[in-house]
Amino acid sequence: MFTERNTLETPLNKAPVLMHSCCAPCAGELMEAFVFSKIEFSIFFYNPNIHPKKEYEIRKQENIRYAKEHNIPFIDCDYDTDNWFERTKGMEHEPERGIRCTACFDMRFERTALYAHENGFPVITSSLGISRWKNMDQINDCGLKAAKPYDDITYWTFNWRKKGGAERMYKIAKQEEFYKQEFCGCVYSLRDTNLWRKKTDRDLIKFGEKFYAFET
After folding, report:
1. Of the candidates 41, 202, 216, which has an alpha carbon nearest to the alpha carbon of residue 119?
2. Please, which pLDDT band fits residue 35 given cuts at 50, 70 and 90?
């Protein structure tokens, strides 16, 4: 059962909201906030960056599971990895939060905005910004840019980390025992994370084995 919290208001009080979700742990707090605030919304899962396919399916199914628990519509978009690799070509060795991440956010938000425009969603937003590993300004800039071509679409730049949002994100993840991914998602993040683990004498990433522990 969702806890008491402040009620949210969408930009210009418009709805429904199309919420781009990157994964269940990040999206859980947004989903709780929307449900508590009685905001109509759907989840839009478009993440062709996630590699390999096994990792992608685990993250997606965890998100579907939580959405079903609360009767939230879930829109499963294409896993068009070829397009993602084309968009990020030449950026294989760029650092996290750099231009490769910008290209990745652009691609995902452009598809989100297009779907919103074609299907009657006046507001879009994303769970990406709640993660402390991401640059909030970078994400919001990409979201605003994606919405700009459409007069009927607003990107919601709400800071989901504030007022305890980041802490609730982890609390929900533990309560639901969500899959705990150990890298950002793309093949280059996987490569760099494993290189760091080798240097620090740590085990390499194993897909589908680590979950948040339930706390009573």
Report:
1. 41
2. very high
* Model confidence band, residue 1 (pLDDT cutoffs 50, 70, 90): very low
Task: Pick the closest to residue 146 from 208, 186, 104, 96 (CA basis).
Answer: 104
Question: What are the Cα distances from residue 216, in Å, to 66, 174, 179?
Answer: 19, 9, 18
pLDDT of residue 2: 55
Which is it for strands 74-76 and 41-45: parallel, antiparallel or unpaired? Answer: parallel
Q: Is the dihedral of CA 187, 189, 192, 194 positive or negative?
A: negative
**Is the pTM value of this prediction over 0.85?**
yes
Q: Are 88 and 104 in contact (CB under 8 A)?
A: yes
**Whole-angstrom distance, CA of residue 134 vs CA of residue 140:** 11
Q: Per-residue confidence at 103, pLDDT binned at 50, 70, 90? A: very high
Mean pLDDT of the chain: 94
Contact 43, 19 (CB under 8 A): yes
Q: Of 44, 36, 47, 19, whose CA–CA distance to 158 is shortest?
A: 19
CATH class of 13-199: alpha beta
